[in-house]
Amino acid sequence: MALKLHHCHLQRLSKFTSASILLPNFQTLSVSKLNGAITRVKSQRISSRLSKRRHILSASLSSLDLTEENINQVLEDAKAELAQLFDTSVGITGKAELAEVDGPYVKLRLSGKFWHKRSTVVARLGNYLKQRIPEILEVDIEDEKQLDDSPANF
Q1: Residue 79 belongs to domain with CATH number
Q2: What Rg value do the Cα atoms of the chain yield, rounded?
Q3: Is residue 2 part of a domain?
Q4: Are residues 48 and 119 in the same domain?
């Protein structure tokens, strides 16, 4: 799909700037800036029933330092962006939490049910964390038993 951009006026609110434009095929593209740097790009598609589906692109988000606080924030961001992994509306109650940080190595703790295999969840979260925090070399699971997808593990 080709993206056609139209010029639009940006509304300034102190240091925060936000813009929204209507694209063909009933899509809206929103760009948010903070201190001149792009912080978020959202694309919303409005279906025939007028319900909105949001896609948040993190490619434009700035890199963060390797701290526990930043890892927790990125995990929260991942829940929004990777909503198909964490969608509670269909009974998926899976949680991914930071278990340990040892230098550039991060360990996650999984609990609850996931739509995808737990190994897939860890891989996707690992990729997301590494993109946002480039200092991370490896993301692994706290305990291999947490990768067991059997119902007894929930």
Answers
A1: 3.30.300.130
A2: 18
A3: no
A4: no
